[in-house]
Amino acid sequence: MSPRPSLRRLLPISASLIVPPAGVFLALIVAGEIDLWPALAGVAAITLLSALLAGPFLHDLAKVAGYAAALARGEDASPPLVTSSLAADLLTALNQLRRAWRLQGDEKATLLGFHETVFDRLPSPLFLLNAQRRIVKGNLAARNLFGRQQTGRDLAAVLRHPDILEAADRVLAGAVGEQVDFTLPGPTDRHFGAMVEPLPQIGPDGTVALLWLHDVTTLKQLEQTRADFVANASHELRTPLAALLGFIETLRGPARDDGEARERFLQIMQEQGTRMSRLVDDLLTLSRIETHEHSRPSRRADLGTILHRVAAGLELQAAKRRMPISLEFAEPLPPVVGDEDELVQIFQNLVDNALKYGREGTPVTMTARLADQVPPAIAGLGAAFVAVAVRDRGDGIAREHLPRLTERFFRVDTARSRQMGGTGLGLAIVKHVIARHHGALAIDSTLGAGSTFTVFLPAA
Ligand SMILES: Nc1ncnc2c1ncn2[C@@H]1O[C@H](COP(=O)(O)OP(=O)(O)O)[C@@H](O)[C@H]1O
Ligand SMILES: [Mg+2]
Predict the structure, then answer these.
(1) According to the 3-state scheme, what is the secondary structure of 226-254?
(2) Ligand 1 near 412 CB (within 6 A)
(3) Which of 317, 391, 401, 412 to mutate to test the pocket of ligand 1 (most atoms within 8 A of CB)?
């Protein structure tokens, strides 16, 4: 690229340069100081000289102009070689401008990249919509939820929920923001709150509104759990209550004078009353542990003392089913961080289960040692754990029930649990106490052979 100043440009400049000397020559002719021909020769000489002098300068200027035009087109042009100092100055100024632009451009690109990252990292799915309801862009969470190919598609092709589409249409037509709840069906349903918000101004990419989804599945599940819990607890209380009321009615009516029936009924009534009281006790224990589940115990507890206390407390119950409780560990055991009463509660519940669901006449064993292997949930904590295992020789538990065992009111065999005086809350209490202690529970069971419940507690 070597632009030359055209004759069209050169002429007017040369002409403007010769106007003053031509005027002087004209005045001299009129004054009779000079003849016409020498004057014309003088003007021609000046014209030629000025064209010769201005030529290279104009050539430089044309090169600088060409360079500036190339930069404006975004080309990566290299600066031309110029000879005149004015053109060189112009070129220097142009290069400074170029550097400033480049710097600004880099800063803008960095900022844009940063905004893209923030947009992508937002944990909730987010879509930018244009006035035609097409997706301008979706963030990473949106792409993960609805697939990669979204840009440029109508929202309806990605999210087929009529309520959301109608809300989006209303917002695009000028309404204020709207919120819609919807469910994405799948192996496990996911519940979302969707917000469509108009933007105060149109974005450079045509964005006029945002569609933001927030996952409320956990909240919904919690709500369901709470509702189930209230229903279960009421049901558990109502059954013995109905029995009590029934017997009271019978005692006041048909069995009023039947001394033998009265004795039998009172016996049953006492059992039902005891069952209700046990249930209320367990419910209160559970609620108390849950309210302070997030404050970890800080005191040391001696496991040996705890396990002996548990065994002694259940001795009578064990003797009734001829099931000796054997403690198998070398003392002293390493101390653990924990609340002694709550730890007693854990092992009481586990040994109680072992006595209830173990076979009559078989022993229940409690072993304790420093754990050489811990469940994955606590493996990364770096602490040492003491493992206490409660083992029975019972019918065992089928594998499919194991994940649900610590749910409130879950029983493998409800009738058997009730008949044994169970509330269905024992293992739920165990789970929450262990969670508060930052420990873990492992359940190992073989059908027909028995079960082992192992509690891992952080050593002090
Ligand atoms: N050692 C065990 N052997 C067999 N099944 C057990 C054992 N421990 C618990 N289970 C099962 O888990 C269920 C829940 O236990 P838990 O929460 O203690 O309630 P509960 O003992 O009051 O029924 C029991 O009903 C029983 O079906
Ligand atoms: Mg129990």
Answers:
(1) HHHHHHHHHHHHHHHHHHHHHHHHHHHCC
(2) yes
(3) 412
In the 8-state DSSP scheme, what is residue 380?
T
CA separation for the pair 146, 128 (Å, rounded): 14
CB-count burial class (<10 Å; 0-12, 13-18, 19+) for 37 = exposed
Which candidate, 160, 170, 121, 128, places its Cα nearest to that of 179?
Answer: 170
Nearest CA to ligand 1 atom 14: 411
Three-class DSSP category at 262: helix
Q: Which residues pair with 365 in a beta bridge?
A: 326, 391
Full-model pTM: 0.68
The closest-lying atom of ligand 1 relative to the alpha carbon of residue 410 is 14
Ligand closest to Cα of 412 equals: 1
Tens of pLDDT, residue by residue over 375-393, are 998 988 878 999 999 999 9
Please give the structure tokens belonging to residue 171: 């917002």
**Which ranges constitute the DSSP H helices of 215-365?**
217-252, 259-291, 303-313, 315-320, 340-357
Determine the Cα–Cα distance for residues 342 and 299; give it in Å rounded to an integer: 12
pLDDT computed for residue 18 by the predictor: 78
Q: Name the band, by pLDDT with cuts 50, 70 and 90, for residue 2.
A: very low
Using CB atoms within 10 Å of the CB of residue 174, give its burial: 0 to 12 exposed, 13 to 18 middle, 19+ buried. exposed
Ligand 1 atom closest to 424 (CA): 19
80 lines ligand 1 (CB under 6 A): no
The neighbour count for residue 134, using CB atoms within 10 Å, is 18
